Amino acid sequence: MNLRRVAILCGPVVSLLVAQMASRGQTPPASNESNKARPTAEEAKKYIENAETELFNLGVKASRASWVEENFITDDTEKIAADANEVLNTASTEYAKEAHRFDGLQLAPGLARKRLLLELAAGFPAPNDPKAQKELADILASLDGDYGKGKWCPEGEKRKCLDVTAVEKLMAESRDPEELKRAWLGWHAIGAPMRQRYARMVELGNAGARELGYADVGALWRSNYDMPPDDFAKEEDRLWEQLKPLYLSLHAYTRGQLRKKYGKDLVPADGPIPAHLLGNIWSQEWNNVYSLMDSAKPPESYDLTKILQERRTDARGMVKYGEEFFVSLGFAPLPPTFWERSLFTKPTDRDVVCHASAWDVDSKEDLRIKMCIQIREEDFRTIHHELGHNFYQRAYINQPPLFQGSANDGFHEAVGDTIALSVTPEYLKKIGLIETVPPASGDIDYLLQQALEKVAFLPFGLLVDKWRWEVFRGQVQPENYNKAWWELRRGYQGVAPPVERAEADFDPGAKYHVPANVPYARYFLARILQFQFHRALCKAAGITGPLDRCSIYGNKTAGERLNQMLSMGQSKPWQDALETLTGQRQMDATALADYFVPLKTWLDEQNKAKGYRVGW
Ligand code: X8Z
Ligand code: ZN
Question: Which ligand is nearest to the CA of 383?
Answer without folding.
Answer: 1
